[in-house]
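Table S5 (text form). Sequence records supplied for joint modeling of the two-component complex.
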Amino acid sequence: MWIYEKKLQYPVRVTCGTDLKLAQYLLTQYGGPDGELSAALRYLNQRYTIPTNEAKGLLTDIGTEELAHVEIITTLIYQLTKDATAEDFKAADMGSYYAIRDGALFYSDSNGVPWTATYIQAHADPITDLHEDMAAEQKARAVYEHLIKLTDDPGVKDTLRFLREREVVHYQRFGEALRIVQEYMDTKKVY
Amino acid sequence: MKERMVLMRQIQDVEFALTELQLYLDTHPFDQKALMDFNCYSQQLLMLKQSYEMAYGPLLSYGFSPSPYPWKWLDSPWPWEEQF
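The corresponding structure-token record, covering 275 residues in total, follows.
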């Protein structure tokens, strides 16, 4: 089971106030292909067929951390949009977003394409699944680097840098889990 | 309010060290030094959370934190409303 902790994993600071366009760019890390929701669901779903306890632990723990990252991204989006009026949405060329949702969040990428389970994969083969996870971390790292280039807000940049760094650490740990799984499979001589 | 944020930041710092150690120990379960660090920070976290919760209400749901009267769980700010 999971227990909710009423705090953010990392302090979110929006320094420059409302910025609807930036919120729209960030949306892809909420409900986009390489976003935090995709990450959490990908890892937690792969746990059931992964063979070693190291990998079971890692998928559980990184999957859980990704849920905390979902909350960091939504906090950024919320704080960038909470004071916006219909006029602000129109001025940012986001009247079409306002028409459907006002300020509500939704699981989609920055272009409004809704989240889909096809963003994630699971094949039971532990080598395949861990490679998928490592690739996912690199894709998310690249997206965070793009996002950092898209904003001048120092607070938002700081939070995005934290999230980018987590992708690097997760990639490293998944690589170690892959080595452990490979050693395990070699001793079992499955072929 | 300021004191609450200082305590919250301390909890975030210690919890971050523990998150890092948790993931590291998942792939290095026999690293005794890392495990000692983990247990040491875990003690620190327990004390920090106790002082936070005594002053500002529960951090955890489902009975993992006690609550004074009236039900303090509902108090603002919620995490996404927090101004750091």
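Note: The two ends of chain B are 11 Å apart (CA to CA).
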